């Protein structure tokens, strides 16, 4: 696997990240261990989790696998804050994540959300304190709007003693290209990498839903069904058809083509893979063997294009 610098920082990460959103909710400990081992063997380093996932169970599962499955020092652990972003809430969230993960520091701590009732200086100062204390190495944000990211990135990069933002995480895929209108331009302007989550749109871009809904798929889960249904549109059908055509020509899978497309978008750091099974993860990792010809890139750009705002 190849590696990239994250933003305008010294943090060097694998250009694919392993997500833990399904861990504890469809992915048990044994399967999680197999995923982590496979990801590490493929050269992956960045593992993304959150206290929001299953009320912290994703972090706990990851912590239980460190050293026994993969050495802690071989991984870069990313997690998020909780939804409340006052100084007290942030510090409580940080200490809770450190405890559940069983580690003495977090490599990438990402601010989750925006709260206009909390002074921004208080929030950013707490992020900086976490870094200077040694409990966090780098900082980023999750699910911010373009103007919110630009405001924080400007403050962090211009004020003396501030820690620059490394990344912003948001949903981004061939089916969800809205970040290109506002968030991605802001990120690139401020030298902040974008970490796409749901890069396969919940599995829609794998082609598994072209003719039916598999009984063991996320669409069969009542909690996930509305998300999948939202993405099963005529536009999605055209994109999936284009992916399948490209995959046939390249001798790979639609998932690998979709991931190669998002991986190579300007400004992208590491797409976060959210596989439920080791076989699904293996299929995703196959994208590292794929380089899309310019003609296929252009065709995918065209079929997935959104109207200009």
How would you characterize this protein structure?
The chain has 309 residues and is of the alpha/beta class. It has one domain: NADP-dependent oxidoreductase domain (TIM Barrel, Alpha-Beta Barrel), CATH 3.20.20. Helix content is 40%, strand content 15%. The protein has 11 helices and 10 strands. The chain has helices spanning 29-41, 57-65, 87-101, 120-132, 146-158, 183-189, 225-231, 234-250, 254-263, 278-285, 294-304, and strands spanning 3-5, 12-14, 17-19, 46-48, 76-80, 106-112, 136-142, 165-171, 193-197, 272-273. It has an 8-stranded parallel sheet, covered by helices on one side. Helix 1 (29-41) packs parallel to helix 10, helix 3 packs parallel to helix 4 and helix 8 crosses helix 9 (254-263). It is globular and about 50 Å long. The protein starts with a strand and ends in a 5-residue tail after the last helix. 47% of the residues are buried. The model has no long low-confidence stretch (mean pLDDT 93).
